[in-house]
Every structure is written in structure tokens, then in C-alpha cells.
Write a structure and sequence with these properties.
Blueprint lengths: L2 H19 L3 H18 L4 H11 L5 H23 L6 H7 E4 L2 H8 L4 E5 L23 E7 L5 H11 L5 E4 L3 H10 L3 E7 L10 E6 L2 E6 L1 H9 L2 E11 L2 E10 L9 H16 L19 H5 L7
Parallel strand pairs: 1-9, 2-5, 2-8, 3-4, 3-5
Antiparallel strand pairs: 6-7, 8-9
Helix pairs in contact: 2-4, 3-4
Length: 314
């Protein structure tokens, strides 16, 4: 299908989404509440997957406690959709009120040293607002600095172009996963510093090297490609710790992991990321994306890895 034909076919959808983006947040959240009812009660979108994930990750919680997490997760998922669409029509001032970045000096001090940075991130709501970091960094807008995120191109080209438009709203670049190393090397050769967000919390792709460890009280294969890239490029490493403060309001705290990835011991960074991510999820379980099949394939752990983790106390 040609690009022109795709645009014609998807034009009504584009008009509808642009119309939605013009609505105030209050109206969007009213629509989100209705969407939650359909998603949760009628369509029952991946309810079994979510319930199974929660049961195995939080065996120490009661059924009613996990049910409450599940319901709130679907409310957050509905909000995520409308908050993401709102990126089509939202002012910089509004975004600064709704997502606050803390400890920006963690990043800017690495830039002061001339270092590029790898930022570990995850699917905590609303991750699509993270590119608003350019509204908070004193390095934003400089010709020798790029703010980037890694993404996997979508099969539907119209949807892919639409999402790239949303993600570039605040001036950041989206780098395809398959070319990210080459892109970052090119920037370095051109004397350009960068901070690049890597979503490292999904199921590893086929053939990806992994680190088996306990994560959320389950044997888990953690993606190691992010650490490998950071070590090759000798970048600084940070963690984006996103908190849901209230409906439509977030706080993203920058946490340091390493000043120079190449000076760390192998897998030290991946282990630290897993620890920080679990802390984020345990703090507010309803804010993580439970609909994905993170543990589709069983993972075997060394005995010493299992014995070093105990079930949390009630």
C-alpha cells in the first residue's frame, strides 16, 4: 500500500484524534473513565494475562489487594491513551505543570563532563511524556546535544509516523532499535553528546543475550543489550524513576547508576536497573504495563541466585 493511500484511509482517524487532543484534560478523563468501563468489564482486554502476572509477582498479597491493583491498572491504561493523544495539542507550560523532572543535575553534570548518557526506562505510566525532559534540561536546544529514545518501528506505517510525531513533540529524536548503535556512534564522531532512553523491561527479542535473575519474585531474563551498548560507548548511565502523583500529574526522578559504564563490573548495571525498577513497581504496582507477556518462556536460575532472594514480609 502506498503512503498516499494509507493517508487517505487513515484520514478520518487522524481527524478524530486531533479533535480529541483539542479537548481539555477534564473532558479527556471523562472519556477515559468510560473507556475503562468498556475495556475492563466488556472487552475484558487481556484480563487473564494481567491477573496471572499479578498473582505470580505478588503472591504475598490477598486476592482483594491484587484485584484493586488490577482495576487501577486498567484505569491508568485508559488514561495513558488519552494523555498520549493530548501530546498533539498541549503547551509547554501545561506539560511543565503536569510532569516534573527532579534531580536534573544528575544528567546535566554528565554533560558537563562531555559524556553521553544511556537512560534506563520502563513502561510505567505515562512513559510517553518522558520526552518532555527537554523542558527541564539546561542543555536543551544546543546544537551539540541530542535527546533521544529507542523505538521499534510499528508494522502499520501510518501509525508508526503518527507515534513518531507524538514522540518528537518536545524536540527529541526516535532511533530505531536496529540502528541505534550506529546512530550513537555517528553522533559521537560528530562531537554530539546525547542522552538516549532505552525501554529495557520487555520480553527480550529472539536471540538477545540475557541475564537470568530474580525480578518481582520470579525468575526473569533481563535484557543486557542496553548495558553492552553503554559499556562499548563508555557512557554515563542513569535511571528514569517515574512516579504517578495524581491523575494527570507525574514526577520523574533521575537516579545515577554509573558515571562511566566501561568501568563497572559485567552485569552490575543490569542488576542495578532491575533493583531500581522493582522498587518503582513495588511502590505503585498499578503503574506498570501488566498486559505484556513478560514471562512467556520459563527461565532457569542458578541455585545461588534463587537463595539470595527471600519473599517480602507482610
Amino acid at each position: 500500500m502506498t503512503t498516499r493511500l494509507e493517508n487517505i484511509i487513515h484520514a478520518p482517524l487522524g481527524w478524530m484524534l486531533r479533535g480529541l487532543a483539542l479537548l481539555p484534560f477534564g473532558a479527556l478523563y471523562a472519556l477515559s473513565s468510560a473507556t475503562f468501563a468498556v475495556l475492563y468489564h466488556v472487552a475484558r482486554y487481556r484480563r487473564r494475562v494481567v491477573a496471572d502476572n499479578l498473582a505470580k509477582c505478588f503472591p504475598h498479597l490477598t486476592d482483594s489487594e491484587r484485584s484493586a491493583i488490577e482495576r487501577q491498572f486498567y484505569r491508568n491504561l485508559s488514561d495513558y491513551f488519552f494523555e498520549t493523544i493530548k501530546l498533539l495539542h498541549v503547551s509547554d507550560e501545561e506539560m511543565r505543570r503536569r510532569i516534573v523532572f527532579e534531580d536534573m543535575e544528575v544528567l546535566d553534570s554528565l554533560f558537563d563532563q562531555g559524556k553521553s548518557v544511556v537512560a534506563y526506562f520502563s513502561h510505567c505510566f505515562n512513559w510517553e511524556w518522558a520526552p518532555a525532559i527537554t523542558l527541564w534540561s539546561r542543555y536543551a536546544g544546543r546544537d551539540d546535544v541530542r535527546f533521544c529514545q529507542v523505538y521499534r518501528p510499528l508494522k502499520n506505517r501510518w501509525t508508526d509516523r503518527f507515534m513518531l510525531r507524538l514522540r518528537s513533540r518536545f524536540g527529541s529524536l526516535s532511533l530505531p532499535k536496529r540502528t541505534v548503535l550506529r546512530d550513537l556512534l555517528r553522533m559521537r564522531n560528530e562531537g554530539i553528546m546525547s542522552v538516549t532512553g532505552f525501554m529495557s523491561d520487555q520480553k527480550p527479542s529472539h536471540g538477545d543475550p540475557t541475564l537470568p535473575l530474580m525480578f518481582l519474585r520470579r525468575p526473569t531474563a533481563m535484557i543486557t543489550g542496553t548495558e553492552t551498548l553503554a559499556r562499548k560507548l563508555k557512557t554515563g548511565v542513569i535511571y528514569f524513576d517515574l512516579s504517578h502523583i495524581s491523575r494527570g500529574h507525574y514526577r520523574l526522578k533521575l537516579r545515577p547508576i554509573a558515571e562511566d559504564a566501561s568501568l563497572t563490573t559485567p552485569m552490575e548495571i543490569t542488576r542495578r536497573y532491575a533493583e531500581l525498577l522493582q522498587q518503582s513497581i513495588d511502590r505503585d504496582p498499578a503503574d506498570w504495563l501488566w498486559t505484556h507477556k513478560r514471562w512467556k518462556k520459563p527461565v532457569e536460575l542458578p541455585v545461588e541466585e534463587i537463595s539470595s532472594h527471600e519473599q517480602p514480609a507482610r
